[in-house]
């Protein structure tokens, strides 16, 4: 697959309580497990923070926060009052998800905002993460997002679709899990808008940062930048 191709995703346009949007978010929750994202995030968080939790963790494009809650609660049995900021233009975080996080010691803040506006404000976080989100943006917008994020945090990590034939094969298998038409459409265009090689590293500000970027088996693409 050659250059990235961006097509608007249906889930971004649907009201959060539309039945098709709800179905698609349930699909996303299942897909995050099937694609190994929850396991990969969990092991990264444990290794990166050596068993401690980040002080302030922000997720961009957090959606319903359900997969994030599950992996944070698995990675850090007691968050000791750490702050979790879930940023989304259309957040739909269930009260049960917030309560589960609070029981696990997280102070949860849901920000209904465009990520660019939020990053341009007075945001501070030790770590910013994104899951299935960066591929929504053209390279020039990503370079802007990265410039803003690099001012706010000391660590940035993302798990994204990989632009690969394996990804397209995965999309072709979606009917087997009864994924709805919104999910099937969005999964295909997400692979086409996904990343490969060192495309994200090339957009991250160079000075004072170390970037890691690689394939995440089977369908995904991992990126992490740490301030040196
Ligand atoms: C594919 S969903 C991923 C949700 C979640 N990270 C997950 O893995 O289940 C992408 C999310 O990005 C949000 N989004 C898209 N563009 C945005 C923007 N400019 N600012 C904030 N949120 C945005 C959408 O509302 C949607 O919830």
Please summarize what this structure is.
This protein is α/β, with parallel strands linked by helices. It has 9 helices and 7 strands; from the N terminus they run H-H-H-E-H-E-H-E-H-E-H-E-H-H-E-E.
Structure write-up:
This protein has 228 residues and is of the alpha/beta class. It has one domain: Rossmann fold, CATH 3.40.50.150. It has helices at residues 10-13, 19-34, 37-49, 66-75, 95-103, 115-120, 139-152, 165-172, 181-192; strands at 56-60, 83-88, 107-112, 127-131, 155-161, 209-216, 220-227. Helix 8 runs antiparallel to helix 9. It is globular, with a radius of gyration of 17 Å. The mean pLDDT is 95. Bound molecules: S-adenosylmethionine. S-adenosylmethionine binds at residues 11-12, 28, 32, 61-63, 67, 88-90, 114-115, 131-133, 136.
SSE diagram, text form:
Layout: H1 10-13, H2 19-34, H3 37-49, E1 56-60, H4 66-75, E2 83-88, H5 95-103, E3 107-112, H6 115-120, E4 127-131, H7 139-152, E5 155-161, H8 165-172, H9 181-192, E6 209-216, E7 220-227
The structure holds S-adenosylmethionine.
S-adenosylmethionine is lined by residues 11-12, 28, 32, 61-63, 67, 88-90, 114-115, 131-133, 136.
């Amino acid at each position: 697959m050659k250059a990235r191709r961006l097509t608007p995703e249906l889930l971004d346009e649907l009201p959060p309580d539309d039945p098709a949007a709800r179905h698609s978010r349930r699909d996303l929750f299942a897909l995050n497990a099937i694609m190994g994202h929850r396991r990969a995030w969990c092991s990264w968080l444990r290794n990166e923070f050596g068993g401690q939790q980040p002080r302030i963790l922000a997720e961009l494009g957090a959606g319903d926060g359900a997969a994030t809650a599950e992996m944070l609660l698995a990675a850090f049995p007691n968050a000791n009052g750490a702050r979790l900021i879930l940023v989304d233009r259309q957040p739909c975080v269930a009260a049960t998800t917030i309560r589960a996080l609070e029981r696990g010691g997280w102070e949860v803040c849901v920000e209904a905002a465009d990520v660019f506006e939020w990053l341009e404000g007075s945001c501070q976080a030790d770590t910013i993460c994104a899951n299935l989100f960066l591929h929504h943006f053209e390279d020039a917008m990503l370079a802007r997002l990265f410039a803003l994020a690099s001012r706010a945090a000391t660590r940035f990590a993302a798990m994204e679709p990989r632009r690969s034939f394996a990804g397209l094969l995965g999309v072709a298998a979606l009917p087997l899990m009864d994924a709805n038409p919104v999910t099937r459409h969005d999964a295909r265009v997400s692979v086409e808008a996904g990343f490969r090689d060192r495309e994200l590293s090339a957009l991250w500000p160079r000075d004072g940062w170390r970037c890691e970027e690689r394939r995440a088996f089977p369908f995904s693409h991992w990126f992490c930048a740490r301030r040196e």
